[in-house]
Amino acid sequence: MVYNYRMTPKLVEDFFTKEEIEEIKAVIASQLSSKSMVNNEDQNFVDQNNIVQQDHTGRIVMQGLQHVMPKHIITKMNRFALTLWEYNVAPELVGITYNNWNKKYGHPTLPPHYDKGSIGLLIDYQIDSTTNWDLWVDGERFSMPDNSVVAFVPTRQVHWRTHRPFEDGEEVSLLFFEYSGEGISQKIDTEQLKKANTIYNTYTWRPEGKRY
């Protein structure tokens, strides 16, 4: 099977209805209230039983939401994934992961990187935020409003979030919808990564949210 290991990142706004957003938030709230918080600084951890806090990235992570998310929510995202899928088999959702970046968990940061593993498509869904925190994929910047998605191939496309400080009360919450990619593994483009790190270290962010 031959895969297109890169894709043009796609931003779609107003993805879910208000009713669907409330359902998603209810699932997240229920899971947050029923699980214990543990600390694990390993970037490649697997833990579907707890909420994992990572001080060095300033976030909490909750895996395994594909088991509790309403089926019609998953069906809607699967249909969107299928419109992006260029392979010979239908996309298989293998994970939904909740992430919340907040200063109270450490120093929110997401420097340029390639994901490990075999994820053939990652759909970032921004569910809630109190500040702007742009997503970059292969050097292209996306200012994501709440209820928007950006899709890309995380194992083959370098991605990061703008290097910036977070103030008290500022946070960004995302769901990662992860789809398997048979035959895909991490492949780092050293030139792309070098360019990404240059942007990451030199791009100027202003507290009022303006970009310069």
Please, could you describe this protein's structure?
This protein has helices at residues 18-34, 71-84, 190-202; strands at residues 10-12, 37-39, 51-54, 59-62, 93-102, 119-129, 135-137, 140-142, 148-152, 159-161, 171-180. It is α+β, with helices and mostly antiparallel strands. The protein has one domain (10-202): q2cbj1_9rhob like domain (Jelly Rolls, Sandwich). It has an eight-stranded mixed sheet, with helices on one face. β3 (51-54) and β4 (59-62) form a beta hairpin. The N and C termini lie far apart (43 Å).
Strand fraction band? 25-35%
Number of domains: 1
CATH fold group = Jelly Rolls
Write the element-wise H/E pattern from the N-terminal end onward. EHEEEHEEEEEEEH
Number of helices: 3
Summarize this structure as a short list of keywords or feature phrases:
alpha+beta; eight-stranded mixed beta sheet; 3 helices; 21% helix; 212 residues; Jelly Rolls
Concise account of the structure shown:
This protein is α+β, with helices and mostly antiparallel strands and 212 residues long. The chain has three helices and eleven strands; from the N terminus they run E-H-E-E-E-H-E-E-E-E-E-E-E-H.
Topology:
Layout: E1 10-12, H1 18-34, E2 37-39, E3 51-54, E4 59-62, H2 71-84, E5 93-102, E6 119-129, E7 135-137, E8 140-142, E9 148-152, E10 159-161, E11 171-180, H3 190-202
Parallel strand pairs: 2-3
Antiparallel strand pairs: 1-9, 3-4, 4-5, 5-11, 6-9, 6-11, 7-8, 7-10
